[in-house]
């Protein structure tokens, strides 16, 4: 079956979403790998961080975001948020038939790269505590020790464009300590916000770790899935990016502009998403009614 057939033309956008601006690290890789594709990036910064939200809330909110992106004509969805993947990817795939490509903490490649037999993983509290992560580790990294570091507050730094300086470095140093005092030689950035802190992380760890973050692997997976579904864009360049944020545009604009590196762009506001609208599928309705967003 071709999941894109009859739904969206090949020049339809790929919808990419994150709890905020972190997923721009994934947008950047997709744009580089697929320069002819139109991209619609949705930053849910008005509701970030997701890292301390309940699993029910994350499932309900991300279902709304996916429906919104589909209403804009997106031909595929990229979950550019590890927390959303861990808590909601299976749920979203069960409720939407469009191709959904989801980033996840790169413990598998990190375990394969490690020579010391020990890797460290920085991620949100929700990701660190998830059974999804536990399953990933049991399946792909059972032979290595995994130092798991929950980093509350770090995504908020990136949301505020605080990428370096004494305050951020102090916080990062605290989070890096368990990794630095272990045998870890490989560090997984298990939150899409963290690649924007990479220069600070590298400075503070003095090059001690090989750093793994899977945004290019996600971009390759997007290409494979679109090709398999028959809806890969036909152009080899000239794709456009549109940015939408649930934060006030005046606040979102300078941050998305800085992190995207685009000289000219405009951030559009996300309309209020109604929890009772028609995309609250019957089987999801009970969840939606219990969760206030
Ligand atoms: N960027 C998100 C991730 O990859 C999470 C940040 C947040 O807590 O909202 O997990």
Question: What is the rounded Rg?
Answer: 18 Å
Label the CATH architecture of the largest domain: 3-Layer(aba) Sandwich
Q: What separation lies between the terminal Cα atoms?
A: 35 Å
Order of helix and strand elements from N to C terminus = EHEHEHEHEHHEHHEHEHEHEH
Ligands and ions found:
D-glutamic acid
How many runs of DSSP E, i.e. beta strands?
A: 10
Quick one: CATH class of the largest domain? Alpha Beta
Which structural class should the secondary elements be placed in?
A: alpha/beta
For the biggest sheet, the summary is: 6 strands, parallel
CATH topology of the largest domain: Rossmann fold
Major sheet: order of its strands? 4-3-1-2-9-10
Give the low-pLDDT segments: 276-293
Considering DSSP H and I runs of 4 or more, what fraction of the residues is helical? Answer: 40-55%
* Principal-axis shape: globular
Q: How large is the count of helical segments?
A: 12
**Amount of beta strand:** 15-25%
What does this structure look like?
- The protein is α/β, with parallel strands linked by helices.
- It folds into two domains: about 15-105 and about 215-290, 3-Layer(aba) Sandwich (Rossmann fold); about 105-215, 3-Layer(aba) Sandwich (Rossmann fold), CATH 3.40.50.1860.
- Helices cover about 45% and strands about 15% of the residues.
- The chain is built from twelve helices and ten strands.
- The strands form two sheets. A six-stranded parallel β-sheet has the order 4-3-1-2-9-10, with helices on both faces.
- Helix 11 (about 250-260) links the parallel strand 9 (about 240-245) and strand 10.
- It starts with 13 loop residues before the first strand and ends with a helix.
- The relative contact order is 0.20.
- Mean pLDDT is about 90; it is low at about 275-293.
- D-glutamic acid binds near residues 19, 22, 51, 124 and 193.
- D-glutamic acid (DGL) binds near residues 18, 50, 192 and 193.
């Amino acid at each position: 079956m071709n999941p894109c057939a009859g739904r969206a033309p090949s020049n339809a956008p790929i919808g990419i979403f994150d709890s905020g601006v972190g997923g721009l690290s994934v947008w950047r890789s997709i744009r580089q790998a697929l320069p002819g594709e139109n991209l619609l990036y949705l930053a849910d910064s008005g509701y970030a961080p997701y890292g301390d939200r309940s699993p029910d809330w994350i499932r309900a909110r991300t279902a709304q975001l996916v429906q919104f992106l589909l209403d804009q004509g997106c031909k595929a969805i990229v979950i550019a948020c590890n927390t959303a993947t861990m808590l909601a990817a299976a749920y979203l795939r069960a409720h939407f038939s469009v191709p959904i490509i989801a980033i996840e903490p790169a413990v598998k490649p990190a375990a394969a790269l490690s020579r010391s037999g020990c890797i460290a993983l920085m991620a949100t509290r929700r990701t660190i505590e998830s059974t999804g992560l536990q399953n990933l580790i049991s399946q792909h990294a059972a032979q290595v020790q995994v130092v798991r570091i929950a980093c509350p507050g770090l995504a908020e730094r990136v949301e505020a464009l605080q990428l370096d300086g004494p305050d951020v470095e102090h916080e990062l140093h605290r989070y890096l300590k368990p990794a630095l005092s272990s045998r870890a030689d490989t560090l997984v950035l298990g939150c899409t916000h963290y690649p924007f802190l990479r220069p600070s992380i590298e400075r503070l760890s003095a090059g001690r770790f090989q750093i793994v973050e899977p945004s290019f692997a996600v971009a390759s997976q997007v290409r494979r899935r679109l090709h398999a579904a028959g809806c890969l864009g036909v152009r080899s360049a000239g794709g456009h990016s549109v940015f939408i944020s649930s934060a006030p545009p005046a606040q979102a604009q300078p941050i998305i502009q800085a992190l995207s590196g685009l000289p000219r762009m405009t951030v559009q506001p996300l309309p209020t998403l109604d929890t009772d609208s028609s995309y609250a599928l019957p089987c999801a309705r009970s969840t939606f009614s219990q969760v206030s967003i």
